[in-house]
Amino acid sequence: MTSPFTPIENPSLFCRFCSKIVPAQLDRGIAENGKTIDKKSTFEYSCSKCFKTSCYCGKDLLEINGEDETDETRTYSPREHYFIGEEIFHKTFDENGLVVGKENGSNGKILVHFEKAGLKKLIQDI
Questions:
Q1: How many angstroms separate the CA atoms of 40 and 99, rounded?
Q2: Across the strands, what pairs with 75?
Q3: Fewer CB within 10 Å, N or C, the chain?
């Protein structure tokens, strides 16, 4: 049996319609009929500017007070898996960045926003 999952509710996400990083609102979790909402479920987030929705799999989202959430900032490595809403440190840019999305149609690329370096596409899970 799978355990219930509670994703972050108001993350900053990259809206592919606005082409900006905006605050987003969790609309709902979509699970198959009668199933528990877990990491295999899909979650809809709406953009606070254009109100269009984007869907993310639970395995890509940071969990509220869960096993994924940590006070420690991880150093970026292409071999690791990162969660939307997680803060990471990139040695080349010498700064922390926030994971704000996944590249459309690609599980292997994340979108990370850095204050100085801007929005960057980084690979993961290789």
A1: 20
A2: 89
A3: N
Tokens of 29: 């979790």
Determine contact, residues 27/45, Cβ cutoff 8 Å: yes
**Domain ranges within the chain, ordered by starting residue:** 12-60, 74-123
Locus of tokens 């980084």:
122
- pTM equals 0.86
What is the rounded average pLDDT of the residues 35-41? Answer: 80
Q: How many degrees, rounded to 5, is the angle at CA 45 between CA 43 and CA 48?
A: 170
d(CA 123, CA 90): 12
Cα 105 to Cα 56, 60, 79, distances in angstroms: 11, 13, 19
